[in-house]
């Protein structure tokens, strides 16, 4: 057993370090010294079996700073402090936490006027034969099942115009810095019985990288004759410098005549649609697309 000593008057806290093998050292540290904080943190983390406690090197100044006591943190068994220091361990030391980045979206109801909505439904029902099966940029089988119409000029123009009217407000409500819009893309989709779109983001390739916001305008014939088809927007976390989806998510109902906006980088999916009639007219329809910077 060894003991080192220092003048007590010059320091705030007398700290007895209890090390593996029965060694003890007494040092005097300022109550706000970072090393004191680290010593306490190590003990508390070990009590909670946390990995972060495992390997670090302590270098504690002794002999009024003329010498240093060095030991590996795994040798530290306990501390005796005088005056006592009580640690609020539960709040201060959490398990190595993964930061979850909350996903934000906004949904605006009654987006088109009743007349515009009526015209759109009538238009789409006449266009059934022009719809083609969707695919994905990766061409992965069974990743996406739905129908799409790429040319619908009158309504593409209408939607883009309406989006332009509100986009500044949308960007600000989402808490995003403003950006110059280079283009607003649009497509018209129909999800019928058993259709879905598995988890993806909308700007993960060089061609799509400038997509900033995704919008989805939902519409369906009334009364609604499908269920499911919810939009799932995942929260994010960062892994190896990439955004990946967290477990947590927001569930968005595809409400008739509503439009949803969210960041194109968010991972999202369309849950399977159940449409017992299988009639095209009863599909879950969207005009959706991307606001590019
Ligand atoms: O239809 C939806 O709710 C989402 C569609 C979508 O994610 C897409 O087309 O990229
Ligand atoms: Fe998408």
From TrEMBL:
PROSITE patterns: FE2OG_OXY
Required co-factors: L-ascorbate
Keyword Oxidoreductase: yes
One Pfam family cited in the UniProt record for this chain: 2OG-FeII_Oxy_3
Source domain of life: Bacteria
Keywords: Dioxygenase, Iron, Metal-binding, Oxidoreductase, Vitamin C
Positions of the Fe2OG dioxygenase domain: 177-293
GO molecular function: dioxygenase activity; iron ion binding; L-ascorbic acid binding; oxidoreductase activity, acting on paired donors, with incorporation or reduction of molecular oxygen
Name the UniProt record assigns to this protein: 2OG-Fe(II) oxygenase
């Amino acid at each position: 057993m060894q003991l080192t000593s220092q003048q007590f008057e010059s320091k705030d806290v007398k700290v007895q370090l209890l090390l593996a093998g029965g060694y003890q050292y007494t040092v005097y540290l300022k109550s706000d010294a970072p090393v004191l904080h680290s010593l306490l943190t190590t003990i508390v983390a070990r009590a909670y079996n946390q990995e972060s406690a495992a390997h670090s090197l302590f270098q504690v100044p002794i002999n009024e700073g003329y010498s240093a006591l060095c030991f590996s943190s795994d040798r530290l068994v306990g501390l005796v402090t005088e005056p006592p220091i009580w640690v609020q361990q539960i709040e201060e030391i959490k398990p190595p936490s993964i930061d979850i980045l909350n996903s934000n979206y906004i949904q605006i109801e009654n987006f088109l006027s009743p007349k515009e909505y009526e015209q759109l439904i009538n238009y789409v029902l006449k266009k059934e034969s022009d719809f083609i099966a969707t695919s994905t940029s990766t061409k992965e089988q069974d990743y996406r099942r739905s129908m799409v119409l790429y040319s619908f000029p009158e309504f593409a123009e209408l939607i883009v115009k309406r989006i332009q009217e509100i986009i500044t407000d949308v960007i600000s409500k989402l808490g995003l810095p403003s950006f110059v819009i280079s283009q607003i893309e649009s497509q018209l989709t129909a999800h019928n019985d058993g259709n879905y779109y598995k988890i993806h983001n909308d700007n993960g390739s060089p061609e799509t990288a400038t997509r900033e916001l995704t919008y989805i305008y939902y519409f369906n014939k009334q009364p609604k004759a499908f269920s499911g088809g919810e939009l799932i927007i995942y929260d994010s976390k960062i892994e190896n410098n990439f955004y990946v989806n967290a477990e947590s998510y927001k569930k968005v109902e595809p409400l008739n005549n509503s439009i949803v906006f969210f960041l194109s980088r968010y991972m999202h999916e369309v849950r399977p649609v159940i449409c017992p009639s299988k009639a095209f007219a009863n599909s879950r329809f969207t005009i959706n697309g991307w606001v590019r910077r």
